[in-house]
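User: structure tokens for Multiple C2 and transmembrane domain containing 1, please.
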Amino acid sequence: MKKEVELSISLHGTRMLGKEMILLAGCQVDLSVLSREQTHKLELQLEEGEGHLVLLVTLTASATVSISDLSVNSLEDQKEREEIFKRYSPLRIFHNLKDVGFLQVKVIRAEGLMAADVTGKSDPFCVVELNNDRLLTHTVYKNLNPEWNKVFTFNIKDIHSVLEVTVYDEDRDRSADFLGKVAIPLLSIQNGEQKAYVLKNKQLTGPTKGVIYLEIDVIFNAVKASLRTLIPKEQKYIEEENRLSKQLLLRNFIRTKRCVMVLINAAYYVNSCFDWDSPPRSLAAFVLFLFVVWNFELYMIPLVLLLLLTWNYFLIISGKDNRQRDTVVEDMLEDEEEEDDKDDKDSEKKGFINKIYAIQEVCISVQNILDEAASLGERIKNTFNWTVPFLSWLAIVALCVFTVVLYFIPLRYIVLVWGINKFTKKLRCPYAIDNNELLDFLSRVPSDVQVVQYQELKPDPSHSPCKRKKNNLG
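Assistant: Done. Predicted tokens:
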């Protein structure tokens, strides 16, 4: 029986006159019912007074995040570096499966930032986010070329996470102003290399003013990372709510239409073979159909997918890459950004009185469903296009295993094992989350929109670190 562990929270305030502190409200949380190494979003009703408190709570056995100066660097200390590599060595596969890896981010400096104040200066600070972990640098006042020289460390729970670094301008009177942002998939990071990243706009669709210099190191256990790919992603709680956008709705409709059109065109092609529009093609299709049906075995399904992945891989390494940059998606994202700016101005003028909330919620639901449907089709395509090589290799390993299993083991035994696992899952692990391993795998593959957002923009040659050093010497 678990021992109850309660966390007590109190909200205090000061009176209008004087400095006397008064108790406004409070609440309690039973930590024993929360699972470890997972971020929980809790909405707690306040016991005294009105309202509720929203908390993000993570129970962990070790410090998952830390901030230090550039002089205090874990990876430069040889003893600590060896300890970190030992922690994520292949021999420690089954030791704390949720601790996949280690991330160190050096936020060095930024150059040429946007001026947010009337004086032509900014008060920039930097926010570094990995899923629900969020750390901040100090603010450098009245400076467009700030130097932070801070080191952030994170524990990686999912190697397919995206590191987000956002620069804001501090404003004491109102919320901070956005200056720029970059999103960097962990699997695309080159260890120990100081790079200048061009800052992008809020939607990550185009450049804004300034660059930021980062040096990032990722150390992870590949086997743990592969196993974690087959469980649900950690839900990110710190993100903006969806809002209705005509351009976004149109974009998601077009993306869904493109995926559906692939199936429709395939159906037309098959039907043209039935109609003998091209006798040689129809004859070849007929012979192939007879051969496949007569010799078909269940193991051939993953084998065909395996051959398709292998074929695309050899096309890429031979220089015959059939992947094309999706300019249509990029154009739609740019149009969406312009519309967002226009909507912001219109909303300031009109306010919220004229909005019809019920219709808006329905439209947002349709918008999100279209986005999910389009993203699913694009993720399947990007798996076979080797957009993320780690995931494509993982798919090859899985398909090889499935092919061998289906070849040697009768289908009834496979279904029997699958059914027993599903029926006894809640009995073996009452707090287990219902999931589909295939969908969990596909959720790690970026959609076409995410591919565009994660693209690294080329910085101005004048921002090169090497050139900067030469200029300083001269």
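User: Anything notable?

Assistant: Residues 6-58 form one domain.
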